[in-house]
Amino acid sequence: MLNKRRILMLLVPFVIFIIGAVFLATPLLKGSDPSKLESALIGQPIPQFTLQDIFDQDKQYNADIFKGQKMLLNVWATWCPTCYAEHTYLNKLANQGLYIVGMNYKDNRKKAIRWLNELHNPYQISLFDESGLLGLDLGVYGAPETFLIDSHGIIRYRHVGDLNEQVWNDKLSSIYEEMQ
Amino acid sequence: MITIRHMFFYIGLLISLITLATHSAQAAIDTFEFDNVQQEQTFHELTKLLRCPKCQNQNIADSNAELAKDLRNKAYQLVKQGQSKEQIVDYMVARFGNFVRYDPPLTPATIFLWLGPLLFVIGGLLILFKQVKKNKTKQAALAPQEQQKLASLLKQHTKGIEK
Known about the structure:
The complex is a heterodimer of chains A (about 180) and B (about 160). Chain A is an alpha/beta fold.
C-alpha cells in the first residue's frame, strides 16, 4: 500500500515532464513559425479607409469594395522579394476566377505600376497605400500578407508570408470554400 | 600562440564593436516634440511597453525596423491628440493583438503565466508541511524493539560517562 503510493508520488515529476515535453514539442514538430502572428482582426469587418487607385490618382475606393462577394486581399510591395516569389501563384489563382484585391503597401507608385505591367496584374482592384494607413489598421507587420474576406466584408483569416500552392491547398482553400 | 599584442588587438576590436552597437541603438531615437513633460513621459513609457511585431523581441523604442518607426509615429500622434496610455495600448492591441504588449493581460491563454508561480509555491509548501508532519509522527512512534535498543544505548552511554 505504502509502496504503491510512493511509486505514484515518484511518477508525478515524470508525468509533469511528459506534459511539458508534449506542450513544447507540438509546435516544434508541426513546424509552426513564431514570427507568424494570428491577426487580431479575425471576425471583424475591414476597417474604414479611403485610398487611391494605383493607376488612377482621381479614382478612390472605400471599404464598400469588400462587400458583395468573398475575396482575397493581398498586401504587397516592390521592395519585398517574397512578393515577387508569390506573384506567379497569385496570377494562377486569378486565372481560376478568384477575386483578388491588391494593396500596394508603403511603396513607390511608378515602380508598382511597372511591376504590374511586366509581371501581369492578378488584382481586380489595386489600392495604393503609400503611407501605410490601412496597413496599420489591418495590423500588417510585413509583406506579403493575404487576408480572406467573406461577402459581408468580414476578415476570416490572415496568412503571413509566401502564398504558394502548398499553403493554398493545405490551409487557405478549405477556409475559402467554407466562407460565404 | 596568443601574445599580449594579440590580446590588445582583440580588446580593441571588442571596444569598437560595442561603440558601434551603441551608436546604432542611438540611431533609433527620433526627435519628437511634446506640449508638456507628462506627454513626453507617456510616450517614453509607451515605446518601452509596446513590442515590435516584426522583430519579435524588441520594444518599439529599441527597434530600427520600419514598422517600429511607424508605431512610434502613431503613438506620438495619439499622445499629441491627448489620448491616455491605456487608450493607445488598446488602439495597438485592436490591430496587432496582445502580442504587442510586453505585459500580457490576464486571459484564459495566459492564466498559467500568472498563476503558475503561485501554484508552485503552494505545492512546495504543501510538500514541506507533509514532510514535517511525517517526521514528527515518526519520532513519536518508535517500534518496541527500537525503544529497547534506545534504552540500552542510553544506559551504555551514561555508564561511559560515570567511568
